[in-house]
């Protein structure tokens, strides 16, 4: 049995503990930048390994360093820890907090990184250097916890050469990982638009300036930015998730609020698209004598995987007996992208689906769940990547 498979078997012997950690976190979810109890729990688990150096960062983040040689080399592993404002369906291990749910698998990410630390600590004699483990808050909320941790120096305090992260993926079966070299996940920016018209009676539209009608025209018109101003070879998605206005069917309101996201893969086009949307919003509103107030909330950049690290992860996964699939471009976004702007990075999609329909439910839904057989796989993969990377760096 090779070392990679042996590590996976060792991780499987930790399955009960991994499941217990994950289910505790799942039952007690906390929203972005409110993860106080989550951070306390993480620190409590880490306390069983006294040689690990831990500290808080940005209030609810936790940094854990495992060091066998302070002179390095260093590698980093990351898990996000926040939950979403979603009401989970009733089931035995459901969230105990109303309208709070780990619907994106961050409870599993946290449990798997704790499991990886257990393995790395047990095998300290097998590697030399430092491993920085980041339990990161606020992935689900701009500006993203990754950007804030970077500002506080987590990538600068020690000479980190590479960083690895992973994400549960209900479109892949347990035992499979997904990889893509180069641009992988989209940049995402939020736009918020308030249209101010002149309200009045619904029977007299000629006496008002109807912001609902203008908003409807604007949403339709702005899709032309994607279909007519964008190079069709550059994936782009503009979606509106908020359309709010009015209080009665016979009253035309004074204001309407819209909010949405722009997702792109090319930085130059990203800035052009923002400019086009801004220009068209002001032009159309002016044509119908409605006043627009538009603000942009910069989101996450394009997540780009280092090609050499992708090859390294693929070889390591195959050595462990895992299946590897090449992933398509992914239009959702991830603040792990900020790490990749500073150091070589690789973001891995971890298969978590089984025959249970809930494990095939998309993330960010009330039925989302994972096959917990994926937990030891994710823990072992993170640990093996860190060990092998440090061994290769010193050879």
List the helices and strands and how they pair.
Blueprint: H1 3-12, H2 15-27, H3 36-46, E1 53-57, E2 61-67, E3 74-80, H4 106-122, E4 130-136, H5 145-151, E5 160-173, E6 176-179, E7 182-185, E8 187-196, E9 200-201, H6 211-227, E10 236-244, E11 251-252, E12 255-264, H7 267-287, E13 291-300, E14 303-305, H8 307-319, E15 323-326, H9 337-340, E16 345-353, H10 374-394
Parallel strand pairs: 3-4, 3-5, 5-16, 6-15
Antiparallel strand pairs: 1-2, 2-4, 6-16, 7-14, 8-12, 8-13, 9-11, 10-12
Helix pairs in contact: 1-10, 2-4, 4-10, 6-7, 8-10
Enumerate how many helices there are, as a single number. Answer: 10
Largest sheet: 8 strands, mixed
The averaged pLDDT comes out at 97
Structural class: alpha/beta
Q: Choose one word for the global shape.
A: elongated
The percent range for helix content is 25-40%
CATH class of the largest domain: Alpha Beta
Main-sheet strand order equals: 1-2-4-3-5-16-6-15
Enumerate the spans where pLDDT stays under 50 for 5 or more consecutive residues.
Answer: none
Name of the CATH superfamily of the largest domain: Zn peptidases
Query: How many domains make up the 3D coordinates?
Result: 2
């Amino acid at each position: 049995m090779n070392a990679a498979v042996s590590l996976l078997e060792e991780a499987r012997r930790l399955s009960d503990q991994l499941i217990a950690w994950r289910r505790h976190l799942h039952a007690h979810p906390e929203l972005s930048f409110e993860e106080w109890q989550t951070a306390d729990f993480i620190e409590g688990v880490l306390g069983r390994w006294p040689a690990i150096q831990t500290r808080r960062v940005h209030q609810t983040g936790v940094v854990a360093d495992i060091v066998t040689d302070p002179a390095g080399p260093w590698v980093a592993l990351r898990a996000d820890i926040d939950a979403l404002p979603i009401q989970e369906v009733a089931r035995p291990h459901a969230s105990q907090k109303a309208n709070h749910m780990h619907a994106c698998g961050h409870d599993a990410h946290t449990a798997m990184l704790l499991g990886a630390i257990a393995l790395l600590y047990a095998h300290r004699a097998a590697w030399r250097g430092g491993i920085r483990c980041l339990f990161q808050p606020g992935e689900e909320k701009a500006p993203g916890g990754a950007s804030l941790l970077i500002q506080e120096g987590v990538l600068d305090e020690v000479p980190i050469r590479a960083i690895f992260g992973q994400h549960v993926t209900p479109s892949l079966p347990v035992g499979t990982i997904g990889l893509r070299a180069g641009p992988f996940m989209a940049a995402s920016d939020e736009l918020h638009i308030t249209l101010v018209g002149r309200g009045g009676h619904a029977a007299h539209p000629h006496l008002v300036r109807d912001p609902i009608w203008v908003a409807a025209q604007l949403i339709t018109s702005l899709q032309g930015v994607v279909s007519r101003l964008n190079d069709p070879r550059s994936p782009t998605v503009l979606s509106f998730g908020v359309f709010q206005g009015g209080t009665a069917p016979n009253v035309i309101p004074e204001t309407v609020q819209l909010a949405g996201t722009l997702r792109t893969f090319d930085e130059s086009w990203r800035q052009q698209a923002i400019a086009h949307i801004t220009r068209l919003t002001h032009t159309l509103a002016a044509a119908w004598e409605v006043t627009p107030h538009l603000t942009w909330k910069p989101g996450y950049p394009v997540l780009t995987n280092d090609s050499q690290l992708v090859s390294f992860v693929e070889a390591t996964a195959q050595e462990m007996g895992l299946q590897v699939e090449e992933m398509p471009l992914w239009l959702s976004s991830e603040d792990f992208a900020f790490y990749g702007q500073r150091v070589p990075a690789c973001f891995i999609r971890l298969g978590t689906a089984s025959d249970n329909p809930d494990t095939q439910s998309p993330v960010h839904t009330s039925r989302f769940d994972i096959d917990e057989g994926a937990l030891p796989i994710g823990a072992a993969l993170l640990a093996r990547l860190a060990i092998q990377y440090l061994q290769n760096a010193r050879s």
